[in-house]
């Protein structure tokens, strides 16, 4: 369960990463007030849309015949957010939305597309819901829609309520989310890649239980979301990190990933590139996978010749220290991201078969 400060932090981190979030709590916990207060604090518009009062066309667009053909016209709330260039879409009472309406929300939730109108990147998608057993005329969330959200179990403390009563519910606590950079993004991506390589059965684990399908569960999409949101959180912010991971891939896979990540104690990619000897390359293969995946992701994100060439150093060190298979797989990935006119370092010739397959034969010679 996330208290108010943690919920605000998770909503902020998800918003920065472009990941939709879903506040879940019993009735009367103040979900709507939190979202409206965040919008007011940021001085951006907040449009509340109740699916129980809407038709599918309110999300998929209303067909309108024009001189150029049929256009799917977006409703007023979407056009106003588009004009503002930022703000919040608050899909309130989500579990009262009929399955047909939920289906129409799919593109809105993940792609911020309403009809033929694409909302700006600075428009954040947040939903609120009570569990189906306490919602008025409630429905379970359909699996495709549930898998598009970070599910945040919201339980404000007594102190949170007292502070809100005192301040008038207009001053949400400060977010603990942080700015990110390519290094943090690469490290998070490497951790997810390393874990999934060690537990490929958890890449796609569609729940057997109907009730669980309406919650958080691991899929290719939600693992990518984990890698996208974690860079906006401090590693030391345990409450927010746990809320994000469990809210995206579910408790089973999430707890296992968090335990694995803590045990691996992964270094940041730039430190590894600067000094490959800082890693024990003879350690667990899944740790080596994660480290090299982070290095490769950093080089690919930078996109420069210098970064690409420097990333070969850790791969060579890993191969020479007894992890040639892992290093070879990383070499294939790194070779595919070569910038134009980048030559392969001489030390990387040991990966000649991979370089030949990637079309880098002349550079490897």
Task: Give an overview of the whole structure.
There is one protein chain. A hairpin with a 2-residue loop joins strand 6 and strand 7. The N and C termini lie far apart (57 Å). This protein has 365 residues and is of the alpha/beta class. The strands form 3 sheets. Strands 2-5-8-1-9 form a 5-stranded parallel beta sheet, sandwiched between helices. Helix 1 crosses helix 11, helix 14 packs parallel to helix 17 and helix 16 packs antiparallel against helix 17. The protein is built from 19 helices and 9 strands. It is globular. InterPro entries: AAA+_ATPase (IPR003593), P-loop_NTPase (IPR027417). This is AAA family ATPase.
| Uncertain stretches of 5 or more adjacent residues | none
* Radius of gyration computed on alpha carbons: 23 Å
Whole-number mean pLDDT: 90
Q: What is the strand tally?
A: 9
> Per DSSP, what share of the residues sits in E-state strands of 2 or more residues?
5-15%
- The CATH class of the largest domain turns out to be Alpha Beta
């Amino acid at each position: 369960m996330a208290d108010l400060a943690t919920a605000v932090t998770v909503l902020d981190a998800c918003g920065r990463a472009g990941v939709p979030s879903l506040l879940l709590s019993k009735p009367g916990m103040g979900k709507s007030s939190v979202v409206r207060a965040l919008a007011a604090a940021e001085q951006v518009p907040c449009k509340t849309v109740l699916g129980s009062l809407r038709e599918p066309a309110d999300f998929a667009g209303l067909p309108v015949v024009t001189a150029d053909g049929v256009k799917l016209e977006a409703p007023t709330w979407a056009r106003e957010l588009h004009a503002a260039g930022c703000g919040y879409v608050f899909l309130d009472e989500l579990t009262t939305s009929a399955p047909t309406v939920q289906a129409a929300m799919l593109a809105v939730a993940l792609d911020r597309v309403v009809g033929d109108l694409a909302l700006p990147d600075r428009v954040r998608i947040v939903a609120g819901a009570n569990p189906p057993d306490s919602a008025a005329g409630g429905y379970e969330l359909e699996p495709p829609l549930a898998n598009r959200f970070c599910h945040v179990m919201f339980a404000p403390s007594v102190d949170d309520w007292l502070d809100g009563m005192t301040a008038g519910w207009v001053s949400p606590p400060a977010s603990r989310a942080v700015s990110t950079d390519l290094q943090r993004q690469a490290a998070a991506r490497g951790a997810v890649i390393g874990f999934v390589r060690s537990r490929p059965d958890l890449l796609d684990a569609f729940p057997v239980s109907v009730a669980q399908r309406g919650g958080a569960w691991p899929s290719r999409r939600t693992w990518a979301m984990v890698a996208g949101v974690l860079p906006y959180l401090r590693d030391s912010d345990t409450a927010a990190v746990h809320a994000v991971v469990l809210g995206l891939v579910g408790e089973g896979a999430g707890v296992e990933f968090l335990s694995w990540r803590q045990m691996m104690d992964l270094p940041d990619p730039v430190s590894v590139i600067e000094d490959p000897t800082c890693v024990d390359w003879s350690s667990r293969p899944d740790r080596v996978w994660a480290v090299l995946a982070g290095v490769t992701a950093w080089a690919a994100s930078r996109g420069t010749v210098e970064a690409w060439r420097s990333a070969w150093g850790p791969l060579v060190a890993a191969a020479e220290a007894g992890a040639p298979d892992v290093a070879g797989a990383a070499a294939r990935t790194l070779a595919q991201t070569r910038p134009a006119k980048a030559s392969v370092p001489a030390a990387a010739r040991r990966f000649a078969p991979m370089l030949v397959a990637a079309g880098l034969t002349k550079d490897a010679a």
